[in-house]
Amino acid sequence: MPAFGVVRSIVRKYPFPKDVDDVDVAILQLLREGFQLREIGEKIDRSPRTVEHRVERLKALMGARTIHDLVVRSL
Known about the structure:
Layout: H1 3-10, H2 22-32, H3 37-44, H4 48-62, H5 67-74
């Protein structure tokens, strides 16, 4: 069995929710780049608490338990 087939069987594709807006996409991108929630809030002109709420909503939409899991599922 080729190695590629093994890797494909391990990696799952996660559905990307259709009801995310541009702010959610920006938050996900900044999370991928390693920014903290406070830093993301400053960059997108939102309060850290708003960013936290949006991240929690995205985690629920994508079935993620942690921010790391959310980032992985959003790739």
